[in-house]
Structures are given as C-alpha cells and as structure tokens.
Design goal:
By secondary structure, the protein is an alpha/beta fold. The protein is about 35% helix and about 25% strand. It contains 7 helices and 10 strands. The strands form 2 sheets. Strands 6-7-8-3-9-10 form a 6-stranded mixed beta sheet, with helices on both faces. Strands 2-1-4-5 form a 4-stranded antiparallel beta sheet. A hairpin with a 2-residue loop joins strand 4 and strand 5. It is globular. The relative contact order is 0.19.
Length: about 220
C-alpha cells in the first residue's frame, strides 16, 4: 500500500527555457520522516517546497499529496491545510497588525471557535518562547522574533507535514536551542531546508542533496 504523504514522480520545473531547476526529480516523504534538504543557493530547494503546496506547477511529471494526484489549483486547497509551509522570508508570511491576529488567522479560517483559537495562539506562542506577545505590533519585531512568529502561524494550523525553509535563520543560540527542542517533540513529518549543518543534524534523520535538478542521498 502506498502510504506516502508526498511524492514527486519525474517532476521537472523551469523558470525559463534556459533555466531548468528540477529535472525528472523523484521525491517521497513518509509519515514521521524528517528530511534535510541541502544544496547550493539557487539549486531549487525553495522551489521544491513551493511545488508541494501548489504555489508553482511542474512543467512535467506528477505530484501526489495525501494519497491523491494534484494538478490544478483546486487540488491544492486541501494540501495547504495539511502541509504547513514556512517561507524563507518571514515578511512574506506576516500580514496582520499584531502577533495574535497573525497566529489566529489560520485556525479561524479552519472554522475553529474563538475561545479555542485563543488557547491555540497562547499555547503556540508559549512553546516558542513568545508568551505574552499577542498584542505586539508585528512590524516592530526583530528579525528573529518575526521568524518565530511566522513559524507560530504554521504550527497553529496543526498540519500533518511541516515544510520549513531556513527556520533557524536570524535566531540567536539560545532561541535556536529552544527551536531544536520544540521540533524534536513534534509528531509531524518534516522537510527542512537549511545551510546550518549542525541544526540539520539535530532535527532531521536523513539528508537529500539537490544537485543538477535531482535529489540524491547525502
């Protein structure tokens, strides 16, 4: 039985005819798996994450998520509810005036009651060392604080899969340690993109290197 959460079947993608990024790329993510995605800048790591949730479409090949083939925009609505993507730039993820509103946005859109959402927001922020941040003005936060709030918006959705693009960027050592401990305690399958080798060694169980448009074990 095929119980993969995410599968790429010979997926290719190019931003332009002379700029191939993925070339007949195969990928599989199983429940509980924690995959580190490495490779040089511009190799397509972020592109791969965006393809998973349908922000980009492959030029060839097929994408399967949660047991169904996904091809058109409507197919990916469910995927985005079940796979949480942390963008590389926190400013791309945060758009509400306050931290609490940003973190509450996803759960409210899932139809959860406001009291339940309030508890989810408080619990999620506390887990990231941001207890009491609900009323903080988002644009006034430091880069590291924005990074954590962006992650909180993803975790508050309680997705089945976490797609984390440079989650430790801009974090000091103490905050990175807290993040490592938090991720270690989560049950979700994960794909983590990072240039920080030590961080990946502590948060993932396998490494795939994106080279020449294909994934190879590292």
């Amino acid at each position: 039985m095929n119980d993969a959460l995410i599968r790429f079947h010979d997926v290719s993608f190019s931003y332009a005819p002379d700029r191939p990024v993925l070339a007949a790329c195969d990928f599989r993510l199983d429940p509980g798996q924690r995959v580190a995605l490495t490779g040089p800048n511009g190799s397509g790591k972020t592109t791969l994450l965006h393809l998973v949730v349908g922000l980009l479409r492959p030029s060839a090949g097929r994408i399967e998520a949660f047991g169904k083939m996904r091809a058109v925009e409507a197919d990916f609505h469910e995927v985005r509810r079940r796979a949480g993507l942390l963008f590389q730039d926190a400013d791309d993820q945060l758009f509400c005036p306050t931290v609490g509103e940003d973190v509450a946005f996803g759960p409210l859109n899932l139809g959860k009651l406001r009291e339940e959402v309030r508890q989810i927001v408080a619990r999620t922020l506390e887990g990231l060392g941001l207890a009491g941040y609900q009323s903080r003005i988002t644009y006034r936060l430091s880069g590291g604080e924005k990074r954590l709030v962006a992650l909180a918006t993803v975790l508050a959705m309680e997705p089945e899969v976490l797609l984390l693009d440079e989650p430790a960027n801009g974090l000091d050592e103490e905050t990175t340690e807290r993040l490592v401990a938090l991720l270690a305690g989560l049950p979700q399958a994960m794909v983590i993109v990072s240039h920080q080798r030590e961080f990946l060694e502590r948060t993932t169980t396998s490494v795939l290197d994106l080279c020449g448009g294909r994934l190879v074990p590292a």
